[in-house]
Design brief:
Shape: elongated
Number of helices: 20
Number of strands: 0
Order of helices and strands: HHHHHHHHHHHHHHHHHHHH
Distance between the termini: 36 Å
Low-confidence stretches: 1-13, 19-26, 340-347, 361-376, 378-401
Mean pLDDT: 76
Oligomer: single chain
Strand content: under 5%
Structural class: mainly alpha
Radius of gyration: 33 Å
Length: 430
């Protein structure tokens, strides 16, 4: 860690020297080789995903400085292959795409590989699928070169929609060739996205653990958390609780509680009470005496408990939390959950339980002939409907009972449709 900090201080000093009008000639950007400047950019970008978000401003400065250097330098600098690689890596690291066009237009000596520049130009203009096969082949050909990890990363980005398995292979190639870098962070996160989409649980858990060990402080870690929650909830019957505990153990306590809350919420919406309860228990057990997340955990646990035998306690947990303490989305969930609980706990209307009957009070045996005769009598359950004015058939029940029952069914269906809409919307936003 001390060595990394020392290097970072050195690169920051270099950047400040570049900014200073009084900088000495030895530190003038015009005297620096592009590959040396690229090293500073790479270090700054790796520092960002390692958790130093303040390095973002230096990253923007380095991108602008390298851009100017590449445009103004004598083309002879590309006699050194390291500067050619630097120009290509700069382009694949968020640099100005027009600078690549400029360099290609002025490349009279053939410094740049036309296959590489062609696939990059297509990729940067949103036409990567047109050169997907060439990009994949080029990435594998250059796998042991400086530009190899970057080509593999953008190759995976192109293949992810059509050949996710090939994309995973390219992402693996990228992260293994550039461990601990922004390339590995992006490759792991996108690999996890493929696993979530394709239901690849074991690989997904493996990528999740690798990401949690290395990049929890990345500005993109929230995307990882969302993907991890989706993976766990989608495979609640196959995921071992200890797997979840092991992966989240790399986080500090506040981050663990946040992810467990996300799991509880998503599981409650998906109707998976066992997983929701497991997540809630971890929120409660890891919070200590100062449990600011306790009420929210009770709320999600209550939602998950609605379909279970302990619905009375679940309904209390749902209603017990102050709606003002919830986000607008959770307030909508609370209203939906209350409505469900009310429908389940509501006592049935006695009138809806009445049925027309014609008991056999004489205790005589009913022969098939008698049964047929009874069945054809108007008003007998199962008898053909009796024609009435207006074309409405009588069912043998009173009009009042029909009206009450139909009103209940209509109201309940409307409520459930509304709740389904809310939960579907919540699921899409996750």
């Amino acid at each position: 860690m001390a060595r990394r900090q020392h290097r970072y201080v050195g690169f920051m000093a270099l950047g400040l020297a570049m900014l200073s009008p009084a900088a000495g000639k030895a530190q003038d950007p015009d005297d620096l080789a592009p590959y040396k400047m690229l090293r500073s950019l790479q270090f700054v970008q790796d520092s960002v995903v390692a958790g130093d978000h303040s390095a973002g401003e230096m990253q923007r400065f380095m991108l602008g400085t390298i851009d100017e250097r590449l445009r103004t330098a004598d083309t002879k600098i590309f006699d050194d292959d390291r500067n050619v690689d630097a120009a290509l890596i700069y382009t694949m690291s968020g640099g100005n795409p027009q600078t690549l066009e400029y360099l290609i237009a002025h490349d009279v000596n053939g410094y740049f590989d036309n296959r590489v520049t062609d696939v990059l130009r297509k990729y940067l203009t949103g036409k990567g699928l047109l050169v997907a096969k060439t990009l994949e082949e080029t990435a594998r050909e250059y796998r042991d070169k400086k530009i190899g990890p970057y080509l593999a990363l953008i190759g995976g980005n192109v293949m992810i929609a059509t050949k996710p398995t090939d994309a995973l292979d390219l992402y693996d190639q990228a992260r293994l060739a550039a461990p601990g870098t922004i390339v590995e962070e992006a490759a792991l996160r996108r690999s996890l996205a493929i696993c979530v989409d394709k239901g690849m649980l074991d690989k997904g858990l493996d990528y999740s653990q690798r990401y949690a060990r290395r990049f929890l402080h990345s500005p993109y870690a929230s995307q990882f958390a969302d993907l991890f929650v989706k993976l766990v909830v989608a495979h609640d019957h196959d995921v071992k609780p200890q797997d979840v505990v092991d992966i989240l153990s790399f986080m500090d306590a506040p981050r663990q509680r946040e992810v467990y809350l996300r799991i509880a919420r998503a599981a409650a919406i998906a109707g998976k009470p066992a997983l929701a309860r497991m997540a809630v228990e971890h929120v409660q057990s890891g919070a200590g005496t100062d449990n600011a997340f306790g009420p929210l955990a009770d709320f999600y646990g209550g939602m998950a408990g609605l379909p279970t035998d302990d619905i009375d306690q679940a309904a209390k947990n749902v209603s017990g939390i102050d709606g003002e303490a919830l986000s607008p989305r959770d307030q909508a969930l609370q209203a939906a959950a209350r409505s469900v609980a009310e429908q389940i706990l509501r006592a049935p209307d006695p009138a809806s339980l009445t049925q027309a009957s014609n008991p056999n009070t004489s205790h005589q045996e009913i022969t098939s002939e008698k049964a047929a005769a009874i069945a054809t009598q108007p008003g007998t359950p199962g008898a053909p409907p009796e024609p009435v004015p207006g074309g409405v058939a009588s069912t043998g029940q009173s009009q009042d009972t029909d009206s009450s029952f139909n009103a209940f069914v209509t109201t309940s269906r409307s409520k459930l449709d509304e709740i389904d809409g809310l939960l579907a919307q919540e699921g899409n936003e996750q």
